[in-house]
Amino acid sequence: GSTIGIIGGGQLGRMLSVAASRLGFRSHIYEPGANPPAGHVADQVTTATYEDESALRAFGKSVDVITYEFENIPTAALDLLQDLAPIHPGREALRISQDRLTEKSFLQELGLQTAPFADITDAASLYAALQRIGTPSILKTRRFGYDGKGQARIMSPDDAAQALADMQGAPAILEGFVDFSHEVSVIAARSPDGAVAAFDPGENVHSEGILRTTTVPARLTAGQRTDAVLLAAKIANALNYVGVLGVELFVTDAGLIVNEIAPRVHNSGHWTQNGCAVDQFEQHIRAITGWPLGDGRRYADIVMENLIGDDMDRVPDLARTPDCAVHLYGKAETEPGRKMGHVNHIKRS
Ligand code: ATP
Ligand code: MG
Ligand code: MG
User: Fold this and answer.
1) Contact between residue 46 and residue 59 where contact means Cβ atoms under 8 Å apart
2) Is the ipTM of this complex over 0.90?
3) Residue 5 near residue 65 (C-beta atoms within 8 A)
4) pLDDT per residue over 71-103, tens digit each?
5) What domains can you pick out in the chain, each with its CATH number?
6) Please, are residues 148 and 206 in contact by the beta-carbon 8 Å criterion?
7) Ligand with minimal distance to 203 CA
8) Is 209 in the pocket of ligand 1 (CB under 6 A)?
9) How far is the CA of 260 from the centre of ligand 3 (A)?
10) Looking at ligand 1, which residue's alpha carbon is closest to its atom 2?
């Protein structure tokens, strides 16, 4: 069988590896950190930095296709790898999603709605942007942010100086605060022949910038549900995308506003593991290996709950709870806010 190379050995890499294995593929994880969660389930693991050219070359030669669990892979590493095996999703999807400014500009050019935004390079550009966008607004680093890290809220112009200091000199973007009623996301897949399939949109609840729960079905009208799926397909087609893609949306009276896109399997798609014949991880493996896209129709109502921090104390109880599927990542709790696992509560009607 062929071998799938996965860059990044966290829980997403781990669950991709399991899905690959179930379809008869081998997997090879590339991860700089020691003892990665995916390391216990993959067939092969390379522990090396993204600057280690010989390790990258050996990895690239050992696999038939390369994919990834996170979007912040250094460009030089991708330049080297792309000559050794196809990379899916492709470079364009990575380029766009690595930088919030490029991403929001791309979405606007596609005719999709985003929060008002401005490029921030210094105090002068921030004060000019605040004149136009107003408060409340959010200053975010253009790159490397996740789980709400690298963000500072500006409730009034008085907060501007501190927010700028919080960016520590990194290029940033100011976003107007979107007055949304709730957040949803669409997990879509596109295959090399251009077929697109989308899972039912999920409704997401965040706290402190971290996803806590995803509920399906989401509170959406039939029209909003169609809009959500069509805009995800529009993004996937524009990028000539291959693989699974997550699109985060704000629901407002003025329609759906795109927050960000993730060129990978997505935390808000974990419900599919217990709600569909083919989950997002298998769908991704199918797309990047040229299998037909699978049946992602939802057959249950689900609440997916992330297990973070003290939530882990509930695992013995959750393990005894009917209709509760427990998924643990085998991680050590090295820092607060770390995602340790998730559960899917299955609602039977
Ligand atoms: P992720 O872990 O999803 O990649 P991230 O660090 O990239 O998170 P965002 O998705 O940009 O961060 O923001 C995290 C959350 O903060 C959003 O899901 C939303 O709840 C809130 N948020 C972000 N931007 C805005 C905005 N412009 N208006 C209102 N709320 C926002
Ligand atoms: Mg993000
Ligand atoms: Mg987000």
Assistant:
1) yes
2) yes
3) yes
4) 999 999 999 999 999 999 999 999 999 999 999
5) 3-87 (3.40.50.20), 116-176 (3.30.1490.20), 182-347 (3.30.470.20)
6) yes
7) 1
8) yes
9) 6
10) 147
